[in-house]
Design a protein that fits this description.
- The complex is a heterodimer.
- By secondary structure, chain A is an alpha/beta fold.
- Chain A has 2 domains: 4-8 and 257-384, Alpha-Beta Complex (Aspartate Aminotransferase, domain 1), CATH 3.90.1150.10; 16-253, Aspartate Aminotransferase, domain 2 (3-Layer(aba) Sandwich).
- Chain A has 12 helices and 16 strands.
- In chain A, helix 1 packs antiparallel against helix 7, helix 2 (38-58) runs parallel beside helix 7 (240-275) and helix 7 packs across helix 12.
- Chain A is globular.
- Chain B has a 3-stranded antiparallel sheet. A 3-stranded mixed sheet of chain B has the order 6-7-8. A two-stranded antiparallel ribbon of chain B has the order 4-5.
- In chain B, helix 2 (63-76) packs across helix 5 and helix 4 crosses helix 5.
- The longest helix of chain B has 21 residues, at 214-234.
- Chain B has helices spanning 6-13, 63-76, 81-85, 89-95, 104-122, 144-154, 159-166, 176-190, 214-234, 263-278; strands at residues 26-32, 37-46, 51-60, 135-137, 142-143, 237-245, 248-255, 283-286.
- By secondary structure, chain B is of the alpha+beta class.
- Chain B is elongated.
- Classes of the chains: A alpha/beta, B alpha+beta.
- The interface between A and B is large, with 32 and 41 residues.
């Protein structure tokens, strides 16, 4: 049996076309694009083409708005630190409680240096309250950073409207769109978004390459200074092979956008429709009506996620979990906690994230595999009796909590 | 993915003694739902000789929690209660050919369930005294709660001391920032030095007051600093005046005050008191800024 990979929000396989396009840049096309000779010139032209492809994917007005970086995290850090540096009179950040650690950990760190950070909460479905957001915007807001799509649940945020509201108080707007690019239509020239992060390896390009989109006329302060690469906005010799790979991946993403929203969505819906009726006490987390087409996040109550993943892995099915144990932290996913998912369910959340390389036979195999695994673990669980959950009842399981 | 031993995997895929035990007479329920683990240990104990005849478990938890529970039931079967109470966390981990550092708490939970079950059999009340924090040092599996407690109990002020007491930070050293953060937090709570954030601006001092003579002025500076020294000494720190040059008062911070995260706050607090006592603006500066060598006092 072939392994089934349903963890595409963590990372994706490099497309075969992407790998093929990259290979010459490890061998004969090794030149430094800054060099005057033809070794460098050819590489420079290839990077230019990649930049234009990313420009098309994002709907950016100018190709000079595309800055290649090393990853999504670098793009996020660059955007936020730049906004603070460029606007010394503004010292506040508005973000959300469900952002990726690339944003949240940086904000925690900046807070220690006196930056004021506001973190917008979410409701049970992971949605923001725009009135609360409006009330937080002020002339002291340097930047608002909100993700386009949540990595765990796929829930989409109204970033276009939020960008307009940010501009109302003269603040910059950044979106971490690493999960959204290639899965939802993005046309940045029609928005007021100032900066946007994307990550190559989330859309079938290699790891180690990312992009920061910086709208023309956005005040910008580089994170890495040195050479004149990327027009001085990101010094350091270009990762030419990966940039070329990202260009091809961007081209493929444009071509497959409709497929993602039809066929991949159909497979995701099939997966949910196949599992939920078979497994009692299970539910989809996030906002099912407004999310990425490839993501299904299902909470299986009274069982623990890592145990589910290990048993899935035994059948060569790869997914991920919001349980504390999978990350080595002491608490389950901050996204699940923010939505008020009870601990007994948050620990048992499993994220299945599909890609265009999955097929129906694979999905059917997963539908077959999951229910017995949950049943097997529930047999071991002190919260589960012969007839279902026993937690909460008088004779239920109430351990002395540490 | 965790680096689980084959034994852990084996006990997870094929747990021994899983499920309810109908005629159990010693039951221990423990866990922390926050961190995603809960365990019910069920023992059948012979009341005559307190021998554990059978042991079963039910666990809500990760792979290693289930494997640790399974191992525990195998280890205690055939032991007397007193013998079973001697089983350590390390023994459970060793039985499984080791656990990753982040997962050692799974074996701790097994031992706690055992103590709870024995208490249940003997009609005693068992209380859990185990608190757990985020893992700081991954090399030696030391968590934040333990580090904070040791810093507090022993009045530690450097990473090196923390390493000597707990081993935390003694390996790859990548957790030093985390350890320093805990040190700063405790130092801030512990610090009794006067903290006044805003020094009095020079303009606020009324002009035309009779001026102190140089001798009076130096004496007064000394008095203020002397009055503050006991507070610093209580925190194992100290201060000495090196030089008074116009409006600049140069001092040396000593002991725990040296390099303390609160150094700036301490200096500005003392400075505010000096400004108050002298009726003029002075600034307190580290002796290093004097720009010339001085004789050791």
């Amino acid at each position: 049996m072939d392994p089934i990979y349903l963890d595409n929000n963590a990372t994706t396989a490099c497309g075969p076309e992407v790998v093929a396009a990259m290979l010459p840049f490890f061998t004969e096309q090794f030149g430094n694009p800054s060099s005057m000779h033809s070794f460098g010139n050819k590489v420079g032209l290839a990077i230019k083409e990649a930049r234009q492809r990313v420009q098309t994917l994002l709907g950016a007005e100018h190709d000079s708005e595309i800055v290649f970086t090393s990853c999504g995290t670098e793009s996020d850090s660059t955007a936020i630190l730049s906004a603070l540096k460029a606007q010394p009179e503004r010292n506040q950040i508005i973000t959300t409680v469900v952002e990726h650690p690339a944003i949240l950990t940086l904000c925690d760190y900046l807070e220690k240096d006196g930056v004021v950070v506001h973190r917008l909460g979410v409701d049970k479905k992971g949605r923001l309250d725009l009135d609360e957001y409006k009330a937080l915007l002020s002339p002291r807001t340097a930047i608002v950073s909100a993700m386009w799509a949540n990595n765990e649940t796929g829930t989409l945020f109204p970033v276009e409207a939020m960008a307009e509201m940010a501009h109302g108080v003269g603040a910059m707007f950044h979106s971490d769109a690493v999960q959204a690019v290639g899965k939802v239509a993005i046309d940045l020239k029609k928005t007021q978004i100032d900066m946007l992060s994307l990550s190559g390896h989330k859309l079938h390009a290699p790891k180690g390459v990312g992009v920061l989109y910086v709208r023309r006329n956005t005040r910008f302060r580089p994170l890495l200074r040195g050479g004149h690469q990327e027009r001085g906005r990101r010094a350091g010799t270009e990762n030419s092979a990966s940039i070329v790979g990202l260009g091809v991946a961007a081209q493929l993403a444009i071509e497959h956008l409709a497929f993602e929203n039809s066929e991949v969505r159909r497979l995701r819906d099939r997966l949910e429709a196949g599992i939920l009726p078979q497994v009692p006490c299970s539910f989809v987390t996030g906002d099912p009506g407004n999310r990425l087409p490839n993501t299904a996040n299902i909470a299986f109550e009274y069982v623990e996620g890592e145990a589910i993943l290990l048993l899935l892995n035994k059948q060569e099915i790869a997914a991920s979990s919001g349980s504390a144990c999978t990350s080595g932290s002491l608490e389950p996913s901050h996204v699940m906690r923010a939505m008020g998912i009870p601990y007994t369910a948050a620990h048992g959340t499993i994220r299945f994230s599909l890609s265009r390389y999955n097929n129906e036979a694979q999905i059917d195999r997963v539908i077959e595999a999951v229910p017995p695994i949950i049943a097997q673990l529930r047999q071991l669980s002190p919260y589960w009796g012969e007839r279902g959950p026993i937690a909460g009842s008088d004779d239920g399981f109430a351990p002395a909590y540490a | 993915m965790w680096d689980y031993s084959d034994k852990v995997r084996e006990h997870f895929y094929h747990p021994r003694n899983a499920g309810p035990l109908a005629d159990a007479n010693a039951v221990g329920d423990v866990g922390s739902i926050k961190c995603g683990d809960a365990l019910r240990l069920m023992l059948k104990v012979d009341p005559q000789n307190e021998l554990i005849v059978d042991a079963h478990f039910q666990t809500f938890g990760c792979g290693s929690a289930i494997a640790s529970s399974s191992a525990l039931t195998e280890i205690v079967k055939g032991k007397t209660l007193d013998e079973a109470l001697q089983v350590s966390n390390q023994e459970i981990a060793d039985y499984l050919d080791g656990l990753p550092p982040e997962k050692m708490h799974c074996s701790v939970m097994g031992r706690e369930a055992l103590h709870a079950a024995v208490a249940n059999f003997r009609g005693e009340v068992w209380s859990d005294d185990h608190a757990e924090g985020a893992m700081v040092c991954k090399c030696f599996a030391v968590d934040a709660v333990l580090i904070e407690k040791v810093i507090r109990d022993n009045k530690l002020s450097t990473v090196e001391q923390v390493t000597n007491y707990t081993k935390a930070g003694g390996g790859c050293s990548s957790c030093h920032e985390g350890v320093e953060e805990i040190l700063a937090k405790v130092a801030q709570e512990r610090c009794t030095a006067p903290v006044v954030a805003v020094p009095m601006p020079a303009a606020a001092i009324p002009a035309g007051r009779p001026r102190l003579t140089n001798f009076q002025r130096m004496r007064r500076i000394e008095e203020v600093v002397e009055s503050i020294r006991p507070m610093l000494q209580r925190d194992h720190g100290d201060i000495e005046i090196v030089e008074v040059d116009g409006r600049n008062v140069y001092v040396n911070l000593k002991g725990a005050c040296q390099g303390c995260m609160m150094e700036q706050a301490t200096l500005s607090g003392i400075q505010a008191q000096l400004v108050e006592a002298l009726g003029e603006f002075v600034q307190l500066l580290p002796a290093g800024l004097l720009g010339r060598p001085v004789l050791a006092s």
